[in-house]
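Quick start: read one record
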Amino acid sequence: MDTKKVSSKEMPLGLDAATEEEYASLSQLLQEFTNMPTIDKAWTFKSETEDVPCAMFSISQPTLLSNKKRKSILSSHILQKSNNSVSFHWAPFPVEMTGVTTMVPSPSGSKLLVIRNSECDSPTHFEIWGSSEVKKEFAIPRSIHGSVYSDGWFEGISWDSDETFIVYTAEEPEPPKPTFTGNGYKNSGSTEMDCGSWKGQGDWEEDWGETYAGKRQPALFVIDINSGEVQGVSGVGRELSVGQVVWAPLIEGQRYLVFVGWPSDTRKLGIKYCYNRPCALYAVKAPSFKSEAKVTSDGTEDPLIINLTKSISSAFFPHFSPDGKLLVFLSAKSSVDSGAHSATDSLHKIEWPSSGKLGPSLKIIDVVPVVMCPEDGCFPGLYCFKFISNPWLSDGHTLVLSSIWGSVQTILSVNVLSGQVLPISPKNSKASWDVLALDGDNIIAVCSSPVDIPQIKYGSLLGKLSTDAKWSWLDVSSPIYKCSEKVLPLLASLKFDIMKIPVRDISENIPKGANKPFEAIYVSSKPKQPDSHSPLIVILHGGPHSVTLSSFSKSSAFLSSLGYSLLIVNYRGSLGFGEEALQSLPGKIGSQDVSDVLTAVDHIIDKGLADPSKIAVLGGSHGGFLTTHLIGQAPGKFAAAAARNPVCNLALMVGTTDIPDWAYFEAYGSEGNSLFTESPSAEHLSLFHSKSPISHISKVKTPTLFLLGAQDLRVPVSNGIQYARALKEKGVETKVIVFPNDVHGIDRPQSDFESFLNIGVWFNKYCR
């Protein structure tokens, strides 16, 4: 028997012995990065038994065998020392939270809400934990509501000040479906036994698109944690999808809830990463759990729901100041009003009444406006994607938040009385910082860079809070972020810098902000041979109105550790550089962004930092759009390419995506908002094709790897498949991997692992 033939049959399709050996070697290294845990959230509170603050960290870690992320909590006491140092005394082990959807400590820290969403038709479980045991447990059946939202957008879980009631967002109960038997349709009033019957599908209903498949109608509910009674919040109709709910301060003894509402009575366009969906803050009376007449002191009935922000097109992330006098919120009005899926935020406030009647006439006051064109080195505007649960310093009017500043994430303080914005994280740091929680007037944060794993930091205010306040940052020894002995020396050999790239063709016809240099993060890997260059990977973010930060990325660090230098381009149109630069891209996709990337690559080559014959390009979504554009418009430039769920043909995508309006806006610019239709004309389709990478496919020579999620609703899998088939038809070396259960992000642990393992092998094949 020929043993060679047998062994080749046992190998995976398309692999020879050498390639299989490389897969084995690279997979061991990639697993070292994959296993690193991350901190999702953190909270602080006073210990019941000791007069020292405690911190609790929610941690997730991918597990490849189960293809899930293992969730755990790890606690620590925070000890302040007399010499201005701090010590975290960690619990010896984390506690795994098997099956936990989300958890939220009460304001005092004496109780912990744990929610477990169940699959299929099983109830949702609510658990109220004390310091050592489960105090209460309730099972909420599907007839009351479906799964509780824990997505970070519709999600809203809020304890009241008495820690007796919790308001939250959950999917409303499914409408009844038609039932059929062997004799045909079963009348809804029939008493016939269910044996031998089945449920039909009923009417199709819009959902909220990518990552929200099957999510139709988020609604508000309140649970009494003593009795387990659950009430839906009345007054909110199905014309609104709701989320981000908080308890409002009392107005003459009346409890209100404040929440975000998105119109949902027409076409639901995809909402994930899309801040251009109009939304407003609303107030509604909280359920009383008693039978009380809803009548005001003057004898008139209150309106059931009050729109608090009618004069502005976007309002979200509501937070009340500690004294209850101010309602502060973010707005993406720049996104809504322009059509860009993400843009520069603004911060606003409303003076909350303590007496009288709550109505829609409350004045909206600007706190931090949109910055159009920042001066060099100055604040570029707010780009904030979350608030921590308690973001207030002790003065009661200073917010602490994380925001993008160029290619760096920084921690800022915002005085909501004066509107003054000050950086808290070190001003000259090129690493990225993210606030996790506040400990009084101290800050627990995490800091990382492309070449440094995350490090917990403890920021202390030196002196009093003022316009010239100074902060001291201390390293915190932590068991969470650990690096293996195999990875440490690889990262130690890397360096990074943030480069300013001058715009190639400065024009007087575009705003000043669009002519300013854009940025690229350059990660240099030590070449294996003297007097040579490491091969270069150009990495491109999606969006296009997104940004790649100077923070640690496990996948990018893996590629660097293979001996690649990285050029991570934040082309014009990215977040963090002011609104003029961002708005310069719509209508020019496939040209301005492509030109910026080529300019950045030439900049690196001219500096003698790259070998022009060993350059690869990698991008996902709009980054995949740029990747496939670049190999068509600059066919001799790139030795290899990899595209994750790429936009390859706008004319095909516009009829199948959950965000067809995106295609119109990015292809036409602001004119696209009025042109948008669900039935594109031949003229529209022609322009979409001309703006797409597929229009340049005849020139492509670059070997290209495609990584596609079959459940992607944002850029449906047909886009990548069509382009890959066209390349194969031309004889271009092409490899396609389809992940049958993945959505746009391809972020399930096994899929992410296989994706970047193949990227490493693919680039090694063509760039060494």
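The chain has 14 helices and 39 strands.
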